[in-house]
Amino acid sequence: MKLLCSLSFDELKELLKSYGQPAFRAKQMFSHIVAGRELDEMSNVPKELVNRLGDDGWRALGVKIEASFRSATDGTVKYLYALGDGNVIEGVLMRYKYGNTLCVSTQVGCAMGCRFCASTLGGLVRDLTAGEILSQVIVVNALNAEDGQRGVTNVVLMGSGEPLDNYDNVTKFLDLLSCEDGLNVSKRNVSLSTCGLCDRIRRLADEGYTPVLTVSLHAPFDELRKKIMPIAERYSVREVIDAAKYYFNKTGRRVIFEYSLIEGENDGEDCAKELCRLMRGFPCHVNLIRLNYVKERGLKSSGESAIDKFRKILDNNGVSCSVRRSMGSDIQGACGQLRRNYIEKKDNNDN
Ligand code: SAH
User: Fold this and answer.
1) What share of the chain has pLDDT > 90, as a percent?
2) Which top CATH class is 63-350?
């Protein structure tokens, strides 16, 4: 499927020129696309053009909201999107005082195999295109825009998938997202979370991309990390930290490390102390996360006292850290849970 939203303004202008359209048409259609309208909703665009584009396989957007779930406690909204090929993906909109943050997916499923994560349970189905990633932001932004305020102010690439395993589409998405004529989301307001593909972290920095880099570390020892995250077979903890330092030195942006606390696995004093040793002299931040329970995975979050103890060791050693607020846990806010449930229900109905 060819998506108009994956074109830059100049590319759209070129395309419409080849359809014999006047120059103003690109501006007209571009603003419809950014506002989340599909071809047949563009009231001032001639029907004949809409039909011709449709016949040639063009659509404006790559996702449709299939369902949404609003948390009763914190206003977080979980979205299930349908893609053109029948696959589904998910995302979460979190409301903070400073604005709305949308968490987007970059792949259908995931190949990384982290042991606590629901997104990777069925493996990788396919990469999302840049247009499909952007479409998630466009439709949620349109739905939540109020009184001239944008509906999405911040974007985190932290949904299903490993963004750096889909490098070309993700970087194209970053370009489109910050494009001034388009959604114009400030580059300062974008974060990218990775399980630590070191060569790609360096490439991102070398190519001038500057999202806030969030590295899912989850363990300070190689052997332990291998038990939790298969990617640790490819890159050692040392290599991950070195790549993060490289990114910081090149971009000047403080790196965040994610550390999900799993009861009896990575929440001991030895882990906390080793983490401090690794972070020494590196101006970064550690986000401690309560593990969201995923039934297929069976791993449990550490209890509050273990979390507290872990945090104190980091604090006492001068490591900047915070315990992440859990949001949307009543609506399956964790990575991949909603899609997983949707697929299970569908399978049960089909049988
Ligand atoms: N592949 C990327 C981005 C997707 S995962 C990455 O690994 O960073 C986004 C974040 O959610 C990661 O930090 C991941 O470790 C975390 N995560 C996944 N499943 C989780 C769960 N059940 N509970 C808590 N955090 C989880």
Assistant:
1) 81
2) alpha beta
